[in-house]
What we know:
The complex is a heterodimer.
Chain A: H1 2-11, E1 36-39, E2 44-46, H2 50-68, E3 71-74, H3 87-92, E4 97-105, E5 110-119, E6 130-139, H4 143-159, E7 168-176, E8 179-186, E9 193-194, E10 202-207, E11 213-217, E12 224-228, E13 235-239, E14 249-254, E15 260-266, E16 272-278, E17 284-286, E18 294-299, E19 305-310, E20 317-322, E21 329-330, E22 338-343, E23 349-356, E24 359-366, E25 371-374, E26 381-387, E27 393-399, E28 405-410, E29 417-420, E30 425-431
Parallel strand pairs in A: 1-3, 1-4, 2-4
Antiparallel strand pairs in A: 4-5, 5-6, 7-8, 7-30, 8-9, 10-11, 11-12, 12-13, 14-15, 15-16, 16-17, 18-19, 19-20, 20-21, 22-23, 23-24, 24-25, 26-27, 27-28, 28-29
Chain B: H1 2-15, H2 46-90, E1 94-95, H3 108-120, E2 126-131, H4 138-158, E3 166-172, H5 183-189, E4 191-196
Parallel strand pairs in B: 2-3
Antiparallel strand pairs in B: 1-4, 2-4
Amino acid sequence: MKKLVLGLLFALAPLLSAQAPPNQEVVLSASAGSKLGIALPYPRISGLPEATVTTEFHQVLIKDLEEAGPFAVIQKDLPGGTDAASYKAWADTGTEWLLTTTINRGAGAELEVMIQVVDVMAGQGKNVKAVMSKRYTGKDGALRRIAHKISDDLMARLTGDSGVASTRVVFVKEAGRGIKEIYQVDRDGANAFPLTNFKSLTISPSIAPDGRLAYVTYKGGAPEIWGQRVPGGPQVKLYPPSGKVEGHCFCPSWSPDGKRLALVQSDRRGNTDIVMLDVATGRVRRLTDSNCINTDPSWNPAGTQLAFTSDREGGPQVFLMGDDGSNVRRLTQEGTYNGSPAWSPSGSMIAYVSRFEGKFDLFVYKLGEGKSYQITTGVASSESPSWSPDERRIVFSSGSRGGMQLYTTDLSGNTLRKLINLDGCQSPKWTRSR
Amino acid sequence: MRFARNLIPLAVVLTLGVGVACKKPAPAPAEPTAPAAAPAPDTSDADAQKRADEEAARRKAEADAEAARAAAAAAEMAKQEKFKNDAAAALKDINFEFDKSDIREVDKPKLQAIADFLKAYPEAKIQIAGNCDERGTVEYNLALGERRAHAGQNYLTGLGVDEGRLSSISFGKEKPEVQGHDDQSWLINRNCQFTLQ
Lengths: 434, 197
């Protein structure tokens, strides 16, 4: 019942324009009505230092749960014990789920994390009701990963869908004048590291469902599509074939089945078209053929349609078409500059950016309603939206005066968060597969 | 100053009377080597006199050749210098309005100067890079930069420049020429840049 009610509440969360200005995090109070109160007494530990557990597990899990959406982590005036006799005291703090954790480290550096979740409201007195009970194992260094997994499992228990604590964001970071590289970072902003080291202009990453990369690099002079043919494999040129240069290539986008790349190719007249590359066979098919710009291909989750940006009717607008180039129709009707479409994981929404008074804001078009909703408002310019795999949030780049950073927002625009404190970032792609 | 350093070992070798001293000449000395460094001839020996004359003649011929080489190198350098100066004078950016790729009237003389430069130097090849200001999306600007580069290229071929001497590239908004965030900086960054290949 709880699951149903919560699901309903989030489905109804209003898609209104943001009240809070960007760059300012809005901290929701722990007592926010629709959230489930969860408390995490400090873990019982043996075999490893408390400092490690605090920074690599306890704080990580608290942050994951707070940022998951439906949880309110109860952190004030916590009772001492965790036995059945204390449940009433826990319930009085607003706690519904009480999460107790035991962490052991064996002689061989193997970790064992056991959790138990009790519904202290339903289980007061004799009828203790265990919501969840689970054991996690790993080697030294796995604590963060286990904390993320616990958060995702709690989300799955509560909502039916796995959370996104274990997900990653791949993005582009400036590494010098005219030099950009592809980076990856955990969803909570930890473990940022480069995926390319070409010391060249390298941009526009896309992630296949099995984690394979594709991107554009100028390392050979002209822009080419590089990436991986096999998961975890070497990074090689994917397109165009050597010695056969017919215009420049931009903006690769993996199809949902990971077999095709929609990409952008310029022609001899300076126009750009969307073409479809069958990666295994190298066969290419042109999807658009008009005297204009066509770029930014974004797949629907079924792999049957593409959203893209085109200036065929004047300024840039978002269009849709079939994956064979048929049935082209214009999506955005308002504004003179719309672009960067990103189809949502369920297929029901398309995020995009729209220019107004010299800066860009994020919008979401709901296909069922045929209406657009503004997500961000503020002084900064927001660009390059990419959906979280659970469709609850959008990651994007935002900034003014050239200092672009990565942020995430929910669809109300009310909980804006900085993903990582790093300047010169662009083109984030949120993925479960890396 | 490199020549002056090279002269010292050369003079020492000549003092010792080793004829092969000039087999591998120092790179283009600015002046002929000093005859004062030659050994005094022995007048009592005719053969020695002959050898000394031959040596002097060889040295003079070598010095003349060096002078000719230096003159040729200086001429080549002057030519290169003129080429560089002419290129720098001709290869000026042209600029664009926001979200536009039309060649502005004010830029047409600049393109004519580039075409004239390419006519004056038939060996020269140039790359045309299309760039955009920071406003606008990454991908759309890459396409717009492509269009600007082609606009520059088309205009030049219209002025009679062979297409094979022009290549194009787009950097979108990824490589701004200046870092400012005002109208003037944006105008500078919306450009075609012309560079020698």
